[in-house]
């Protein structure tokens, strides 16, 4: 198959019309008379298959990788329709002219918490901050629940344009490996790129860890701006690999022995209790300390990433100690307050590494027993299921294996896949119904124990089959306490 060659004259003419307000669509059902239709292919579909419907709806321009019949509409053959969409979106919304500084955060775990911490830090310094992430899309005067960690390309540019209108100074966004691989951030120029860590996740999509890492690296290797800075975790082996080949960078971590030749921000845990922790930072010969109600070494790492962004944005060490009153992140080691005084937390941990990190944190706080409710998502990476169970078994006195979002898989099959990882656990409870599993876990507790309900965190739904049902771990906890204690 011959490589598609772009006719630059035709492309520039289309860009000019889009810059004047010509509408662009990627869903053939949304096309209106005179619109541009960009035929984007997905893993299960060929964008060219939807051209006839777009033409029927009145599309005047078709952007497609293939040579297709377009009738009276103008065909613009483009080697990458996804990249074309980014350029069209940038032209339509004028995002190239935006004064907003854009920060992208990728990594397996910690992205959401880090966005909240950066928002807290920069807002405390008087900046207007917008956030696009797993929990919500928000900026001063606007907030909506997030359907995707990283929105689609057109929507991204649209929201950044709205942030610009609202006077936002810095936009902080989570950038998933899927979004990078699918070129959803095309047309954007990042002022800083953060990588928190790379551990096993999404291998059902990427195939293996090396391809997963390559997708994460795209945030650093593409989408440049003149002052772009990499903020890279040198505690993580993949982070150290990236530091070897990316500059300019600030390396950050809790293990100073792993610091590289680049500028480094090193953290030291001064103290950590159930009430919070104190960190000491060292960078370029300066030292400072911060206090926070957050707990755990992984949160120490997230705090370092946020402060590294602060340094890049011109903040001083004196401006860093603003996390004492930080309320935390929904569903990220979030305490479920209750009238029985039980120590119950919900957390979004849905990877082996994330579950290991949060459980190790709780285990170190000297509770009498650690009780863990966990499951594994359906239609996702099956290889991580026994690894999730191993992490639960490693630190839990009671492991409760249940459903997460089974989707179209048999929930019992998912449990069967995870069960081998629980070999050697003293006390295992299997309960396919998540609400019943939570109830049984609460019934196991005393006031000296801690219960972690992992996997769904802030989510207020459960996907069973193709149906999205209302479900909140926090609400189910309170129902269980009321039922058990009256």
TrEMBL record:
Pathway: Cell wall biogenesis; peptidoglycan biosynthesis. Pfam families: Mur_ligase, Mur_ligase_C, Mur_ligase_M. UDP-N-acetyl-alpha-D-muramoyl-L-alanyl-D-glutamate binds at residues 28, 149-150, 176, 182, 184. Keywords: ATP-binding, Cell cycle, Cell division, Cell shape, Cell wall biogenesis/degradation, Cytoplasm, Ligase, Magnesium, Nucleotide-binding, Peptidoglycan synthesis. SUPFAM superfamilies: MurD-like peptide ligases, catalytic domain (SSF53623), MurD-like peptide ligases, peptide-binding domain (SSF53244), MurE/MurF N-terminal domain (SSF63418). It comes from the Bacteria. GO terms for cellular component: cytoplasm. InterPro entries: Folylpolyglutamate_synth_CS, Mur-like_cat_sf, Mur_ligase_C, Mur_ligase_C_dom_sf, Mur_ligase_cen, Mur_ligase_N, MurE/MurF_N, UDP-N-AcMur-Glu-dNH2Pim_ligase. Its EC number is 6.3.2.13. Gene3D superfamilies: Mur ligase, C-terminal domain (3.90.190.20), Mur-like, catalytic domain (3.40.1190.10), MurE/MurF, N-terminal domain (3.40.1390.10). Residues 105-309 form the Mur ligase central domain. Its cofactor is Mg(2+). Residues 331-457 form the Mur ligase C-terminal domain. It catalyses: UDP-N-acetyl-alpha-D-muramoyl-L-alanyl-D-glutamate + meso-2,6-diaminopimelate + ATP = UDP-N-acetyl-alpha-D-muramoyl-L-alanyl-gamma-D-glutamyl-meso-2,6-diaminopimelate + ADP + phosphate + H(+). ATP binds at residues 107-113. Its main location: cytoplasm. Belongs to the MurCDEF family. MurE subfamily. This is UDP-N-acetylmuramoyl-L-alanyl-D-glutamate--2,6-diaminopimelate ligase. It comes from Maridesulfovibrio salexigens (strain ATCC 14822 / DSM 2638 / NCIMB 8403 / VKM B-1763).
């Amino acid at each position: 198959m011959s490589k598609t060659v772009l006719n630059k004259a035709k492309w520039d003419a289309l860009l000019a019309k889009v810059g004047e307000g010509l509408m662009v669509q990627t869903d053939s059902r949304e096309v209106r008379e005179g619109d541009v239709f960009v035929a984007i292919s997905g893993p299960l579909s060929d964008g060219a298959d939807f051209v006839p419907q777009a033409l029927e709806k009145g599309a005047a321009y078709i952007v497609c990788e293939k040579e297709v019949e377009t009738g009276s509409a103008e065909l613009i053959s483009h080697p990458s329709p996804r990249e074309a969409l980014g350029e069209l979106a940038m032209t339509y919304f004028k995002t190239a002219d935006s004064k907003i500084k854009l920060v992208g955060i990728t990594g397996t775990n910690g992205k959401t918490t880090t966005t909240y911490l950066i928002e807290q830090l920069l807002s405390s310094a008087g900046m207007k901050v917008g956030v696009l992430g797993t929990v919500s899309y928000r900026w001063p005067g606007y907030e909506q629940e997030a359907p995707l960690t990283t929105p689609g390309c057109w929507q991204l540019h649209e929201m950044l344009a709205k942030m610009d209108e609202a006077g936002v100074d810095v936009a902080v966004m989570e950038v998933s490996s899927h979004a990078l691989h699918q070129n959803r951030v095309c047309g954007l120029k990042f002022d800083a790129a953060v990588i928190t860590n790379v551990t096993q996740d999404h291998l059902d999509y990427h195939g293996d860890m090396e391809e997963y890492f390559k997708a994460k690296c795209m945030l650093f290797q593409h989408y440049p701006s003149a002052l772009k800075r990499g903020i890279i975790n040198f505690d993580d082996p993949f982070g150290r690999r990236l530091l070897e080949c990316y500059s300019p960078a600030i390396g950050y971590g809790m293990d100073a022995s792993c610091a590289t030749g680049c500028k480094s921000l090193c953290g030291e845990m001064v103290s950590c209790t159930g009430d919070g922790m104190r960190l000491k930072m060292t960078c370029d010969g300066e030292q400072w300390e911060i206090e926070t109600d957050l707990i755990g070494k992984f949160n120490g790492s997230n705090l370092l990433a946020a402060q590294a962004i602060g340094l890049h944005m011109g903040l001083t060490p004196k401006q860093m100690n603003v996390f004492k009153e930080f309320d935390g992140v929904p569903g990220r080691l979030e305490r479920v307050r209750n009238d029985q005084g039980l120590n119950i937390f919900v957390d979004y941990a849905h990877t082996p590494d994330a579950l290991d990190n949060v459980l190790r944190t709780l285990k170190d706080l000297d509770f009498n027993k650690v009780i863990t409710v966990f499951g594994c998502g359906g239609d996702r990476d099956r290889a991580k299921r026994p690894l999730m169970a191993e992490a639960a078994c490693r630190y839990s006195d009671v492991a409760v294996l249940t459903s997460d979002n089974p989707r179209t898989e048999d929930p019992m099959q998912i449990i069967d896949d995870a069960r081998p990882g629980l070999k050697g656990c003293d006390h295992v409870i299997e309960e396919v119904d998540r609400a019943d599993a939570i109830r049984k876990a609460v019934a196991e507790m005393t006031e000296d124990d801690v219960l972690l309900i992992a996997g769904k965190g802030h989510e207020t739904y459960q996907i069973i089959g193709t149906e999205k049902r209302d479900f909140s771990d926090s609400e189910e906890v309170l129902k269980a306490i009321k039922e058990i204690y009256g």
